[in-house]
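Hey, can you fold this?
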Amino acid sequence: MKMAKSLRIFALLVACEAFAPGTYYHTRRFTRTLGKKEGDEAETLQAQTLPVGSIVEFDDGKGRFHIGKVKSVEHKSNGKARYAIQDAEEHLFNVADKQVRFSAGCPASPKDEAAVFKDIMAASQASPAELRAKLDLDAEVLELAWEEVAASEDGLSTVTAKDFVELVHSRPPKSAGEAYCAWRFLKEELGSVFFKAIKEGGKITSFKAKAEKAVNDAKQAFCSAPQNLKEEPEFCFV
């Protein structure tokens, strides 16, 4: 009984830490619960869930992506979770945890919620060039950021969307919307010239700097497309 109580307290503390203000990324954490089954001690891994009110990007299961708000959470017996998520047009979707691609966190007030939803929605519809403009990111700074990550002392050469904003602007993201812009930019065509998306549990959680040869090849392929050359002349002639 004491062990179960301690585990419940631990789970609550982890939940508070995982979704404290300023947390913009969907992270996969687990708490361990113990139960009895036919006289034996059985273990179940319970996935840490997003709180109700979170603004997220999600896959509807048909290859289409939406921005929505978590309305309710259902905990399954296998430790996984499902969400009821309402999009901007008030359509309700029953979504598995693995279908949530990005979480912008849970806004503190209705006013904040409206602002975050508006920013995320606008960023979700932006082109790669528009995302770069929103991030105030020029071609030289982009290449310098890639070089910095590639030469990281830890040898991992990886960066999260939040880390990327801190690297190029010497400050944390101003908002969930800015973090989401960075996340989308890094996984889209231009960002993927320099970085490879890294998945954890089926979700893109970080980005690895590519080797120099891979970057040169990807850049040549990118700039050979007339549309890219038209939209990103600065980048193609660096």
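Oh, and this one too while you're at it.
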Amino acid sequence: ANISLYCFSLMMPFGYEADLLREQQRQKVGIFACEEFAVFSNTTTEIGTGKKLPVEVTVIPGSLAVVFGGKWMTALNTGVFNRLWMQVVTLGDYRYHDWAVKVDPDAVFFPGRLRQVLRHRTTLNDADVQRQGRMPKQLSCGSCKLKGKEGETCASHVKAWQRIGRTCRRALELVSREAPEDCGCKCDDFACDFDDGAMYLNNCKWGLHGPIEVLSRRAVATYAAGLPKCVPFLS
């Protein structure tokens, strides 16, 4: 099966990163060789010159400045990257791909090599999500098609199957059956309930220092669901 990647970078609005990403885009390498890509920053103009940045930018609010500290005097960037990932979740583009990949602008990244590695792994994603002309934020698995259940959401039926012991994967399979067997819904992982204890500790305490971070759709969903509990849990 073809493996689809959604790749993105967080770019500082000054220094060498903008020109480096522009050259990558010109040569269609790095994140620009993925099926879909995005560059994030907190402004569309270069700090110091006021010139428009040479690559298209999706703006995330707030400062990108961080302090350096800890045992290894690394960038304490947890808050910045949590905001970045939440913006990725809000936009929703990654949901149309098997894997989401965060790449530092100066990382040497070969998407083709990553795809080869990922062919040997299961994504744990549970549905093929097609764009069908809709914007990601309008994506919904809709209402149940069972007679007498038309006003109920597909997501509520997924969760109902989970409450009686079905896994997320199995619940999505059951709800996808056409009426009269079930609702005939095509949902993705966000329709599921996640274990209250599931959280990505690295993301909420130590930050994302790795130059390349690779998460499946379900991993992103679990991260987003657990983040509000994760930070106070470790504080």
